[in-house]
Amino acid sequence: MTIARVLAVVVSLMACVAGAAAQAPLTLGETFAVESKVMAEQRRVIVWTPAHYAEGTQAYPVLYVTDADRQFGHTVTTVEFLSRNGRMPPMIVVGIFNTDRTRDLTPYKDTDDDTQLPTAGGGDRFLRFMETELVPWVERQYRTQAFRAFAGHSFGGLFAMHALATRPNLFNAVVAVSPTLALKVGLDRLRTVLEQKAGKGLRWDLVEMLDEDHGSLVLRSHYNAFEKIFDGWRLPRTRNGTFKGGWNAVEAHYARLSDRLGWAITPPEATVNALGYAALAQREIDDALEYLQANVRNYPDSANAYDSLGEALEAAGRLDDALAKYEEAIKRAEAGKDPLLEAFIQHRDAVRRKLAQGR
């Protein structure tokens, strides 16, 4: 598979602010201390995993975020919201807390005047910490896919650009939000460089949000950037919710997306489940069975996948087969304490009554 690099740059033309006010402690995610030989210090990171991560075996792409005290919370909720609505994959999110923000996120010193930012210029060392210590630590501790994204704001956006330029294979996607450039002059120069120098392996977009300021544009930037990076994750559907071409077309769509993003993507369970129910609503029973049988093959631990297939089999008049799938759904739901267990039991009992009545 090819691996396409993605760069999303979002800027406002308001003045950039280097400092950051103290924030209340975060409670979202789990915080760890990572011993760093590269940085000669202990670094705190906070990690959020998608729902049901602990009970499953699925591997996930990873998003790394700087300025965890400010940016981690809304980034997690944006990822969760977009993935829940089928617009991007669920991701593990890793936020990095600061010790000396200016030191770590700036790639060089201002040789004309280094009195205002005397510790600047440690970006290369911080990038080496991420590449040789943090990323390997995350990939040892968690089930990860071969897709890494990075998002940074202000100095973090400048660091994101530096990471893309000097370690192009470290991240598959980079989001640079309001990077600390020379405002309009720096933005125009960046656009020119990208237009002239970016190769075919780099998909990029540069967006100006003139109605936002330097601090307020981050949430909108992440939302837009994630949709851009994962363009195609959401299937284009017809008005009645179906997809032209059936299951084979769905497989082909996600095969192309896998090739572009660089990891083998299984068609998302919720997406395929919705297609199955849309086909049922149109009385396209064979298509519905094909979708929902594929979900059971791809997600054999999912109670809901078995229950949905049971409904399609019931609609097809195959009551014995439907009963068997409902029983499978109940078994998995009981093991996983699934909140839908009662609904699965009701489906099973209804089929039992039909069988008892000889229908």
CATH topology assignment of the largest domain: Rossmann fold
Uncertain regions spanning at least 5 consecutive residues: 12-26
What topology, given as strand order, has the largest sheet? 2-3-5-4-6-7-1-8
Largest sheet: 8 strands, mixed
Sheet-strand content, in percent, reads 15-25%
Number of helical elements:
12
What's the end-to-end separation, in Å?
51 Å
Question: Helix content range of the residues, please?
Answer: 40-55%
Number of strands: 8
What's the overall average pLDDT, rounded? Answer: 88
Write the CATH homologous superfamily of the largest domain: Alpha/Beta hydrolase fold, catalytic domain
Structural class: alpha/beta
What is the CATH level 1 assignment of the largest domain? Answer: Alpha Beta
Radius of gyration: 24 Å
Give the domain tally: 2
Reconstruct the topology from this structure.
Elements: E1 5-11, E2 30-36, E3 41-48, E4 60-65, H1 68-84, E5 92-96, H2 101-105, H3 123-141, E6 144-153, H4 155-166, E7 173-177, H5 183-197, E8 202-208, H6 217-229, H7 246-261, H8 269-281, H9 285-298, H10 303-315, H11 319-336, H12 341-356
Parallel strand pairs: 1-7, 1-8, 4-5, 4-6, 6-7
Antiparallel strand pairs: 2-3, 3-5
Helix pairs in contact: 1-6, 8-9, 8-10, 9-10, 10-11, 11-12
Short précis:
The chain has 359 residues and is α/β, with parallel strands linked by helices.
